[in-house]
Amino acid sequence: QRQMCIRDSYISDLTYYHHKKDMDKIKELAREWYDSGLFSHAFLFYFYNECSGLKKDAILVSDLNLGTYYRYLLQYGIGLFTDVKVVDVADLRNPTQESQLWQEVGIDVQTLPDAKTVRCPGLWYFAEKEKRPVYYTHFFYRRDLLEEMKDSLYSEGLVFRYSSKPYNNLAATRKNFEQNYLLDYLRHPLIEDLSLIHISEPTRHAQIS
Hints:
It is built from 9 helices and 7 strands. It is of the alpha/beta class and 209 residues long.
C-alpha cells in the first residue's frame, strides 16, 4: 500500500508540472521515479512497445492520460525514444501562439491553414509541411478525437498512423508484433512486479534484474 502511495505521488507531481510546462522538473521527477522502481512494469512495457513501433523523428499525438507519465519515464527516466515528439492533441486542433509547442517550433500560427481549410491545422503542419511521420496513440482518453480522424488513421498495432492516402498497414502491424514489440511480459502472472527494469537504447531490448 505504501509503495502504491509513493507511485501515485510521482504521478500527481508529474501532473502538476505538466500543467506548469516545467520540463526541467518533469525530467528530474522522471529520473527519480525510475530510480525508485515504483512503477508498473506492465504499463512500462506497453508504452515501450508503443514507442518502439514508431519511425525516427515521429510525432506521437495524445491527450493527458496514464500514458503521458510512462512516456516521461521512458524518455527522461531511462533515456529512450528521445527522437519522438509527444504532442497534446489540443495543440494540433487549436494552435495558439502562447502554446509552448508552437513557440518551440518557431512559426507564426497565423500562417497555418484554418480549421475550415484543413481538419487539424497542427497535424497538417507536421505531416504535410515537415513530412514527419505522425501517429495517434490507442491509449486516448478522448475517444471522440480519434473518431473524428478515423478515415485518415491506420492501425499499426498499438498506434494509429496518420496518412492522407491508404497504404498496407497490415505489413507494418505484422512487423511490429514480430520484430519490435517485447511480449514476454504478457505471459507473467497478473501481479505487481516492483523489481527494477533496465532498458538499453542501442538494442532496445529489456532485461529484468
